[in-house]
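thread from #wetlab-drylab

HS: before we spend reagent money on co-crystallization trials with 3-hydroxypyruvic acid, can we at least see a predicted complex? here's what I'd submit
DV: go for it
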Amino acid sequence: MDRIAFLDHDTMGADIALRRPAIPHDWVQHGRTAPADIVERARDATILIVNKVPLGAGTLDRLPDLRFVAVAATGTDNVDVAACRARGIAVSNVRAYAVHTVPEHVFALMLALRRSLPAYRQSVAAGAWQDGGQFTLLTHPIRDLHGSTLGIVGRGAIGQAVAGIARAFGMRVLFAGRKGEEAAGGPDHVPFDAVLAESDVLSLHCPLTPATRHLLGEPEFARMARRPLVINTSRGGLIDDMALVRALEGGLISGAAVDATAVEPPPPDHPFLRLAGRTDFLLTPHIGWASAEARQAVADQVTACIEAFAAGRPINLVT
Ligand SMILES: NC(=O)C1=CN([C@@H]2O[C@H](COP(=O)(O)OP(=O)(O)OC[C@H]3O[C@@H](n4cnc5c(N)ncnc54)[C@H](O)[C@@H]3O)[C@@H](O)[C@H]2O)C=CC1
Ligand SMILES: O=C(O)C(=O)CO
């Protein structure tokens, strides 16, 4: 009989119904699990469910019964997948569940910054509309998305959905080729550096891997000729935090919105927290995924992944 442990069940939200897999099993769930408690809580499990709990090689070494990890997310950067493979542990993730929730969040952030909504909100609260004495207040820049260029890194489920909305807005969409490589794949798929140079908005939708860590650092911000908005709803590690802060403060970019930090939640001295008063910077607490519809889809896929693995026909395997 399988022994299933969910180590960070609270991350799903209390409104979500997680159906128990239709296989013989013992079930234990923990709201959250501190790193020091992972081995103790996972020791007896044959199947683990994790959303963001880290499973590194050292931890896996101490879990000899483990056969399957169901990640309750698309991103699997918290799990050492190569170490799992070496130990015969299968890993699955959740796919294409976020094709509405993340793109809608991206456009909420993009529109807020392009139309200076945080700045106007602050001005109205300070009485600037009355002080202006006319029907309109034109104290902050307002730019249409129509006619502007959106650069997208990552042509997967979310990147393509973002592109679809962008085209409906009348934006020109460019997909970035791999950094350091000549791009291929059609007229809208162009070299990475060209995307940096041509974008008015740049949105990141690739996974965090050794190849994408600090994808955007000082040299990349320096190449952003059109002072774009930079939007990161993927993973914090994709951007060098201090380089982003300097790019914003130095005017190399016209704004930034971030939904993920390298450590979550960010520590109180995180450089992004001191940007909180800026109206050209938005920090949201990793909620791009979090529409009720999408979180329910995550729960349903996790159950399906476990049932498929138990039936010997695994789905969504991460290799
Ligand atoms: N903020 C949030 O709440 C959420 C964040 N995410 C993040 O978004 C990422 C993308 O999600 P999906 O589009 O569903 O995944 P996906 O797997 O469908 O697409 C990822 C795409 O990135 C591409 N890619 C991989 N390495 C690359 C590189 N070095 N350069 C350029 N492209 C590269 C892949 O070929 C693939 O086309 C996830 O890995 C996760 O980190 C996903 C869901 C919610
Ligand atoms: O699905 C993902 O990768 C997320 O970040 C949400 O948990």
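DV: The chain has a mean pLDDT of 97.
HS: ok that's useful, forwarding to the group
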